[in-house]
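Here is one chain, start to finish.
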Amino acid sequence: MKTLTLALTFYRGFFFTSACISLCCLLAYWRWETMPVIVVVSFWFKIITYALIFFYINASKRKEFYYYQTLGVSKTTVWVISLSLDFALFAVSMYITNQLYHA
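Its structure:
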């Protein structure tokens, strides 16, 4: 439970950016409903932005990772939980958008 709480604390640092990117993907998917390729483009756009967020956070918050390591949670664990949670939210929101507007 402690690990999840720490990962959520870490995720809060880039939640707004990630939510805005997800919203852009959802709006594009909603707008261009006749183009099935938009799902693939949205997926890869999200993956590319994950890489950019990863490198930016690693560079700008290097010292913050010592906090998590001191509490017994590795840097990899924090990243995996945070990005998995974000991608799960993205996938669920894409599914909901599909059911609401394209079903």
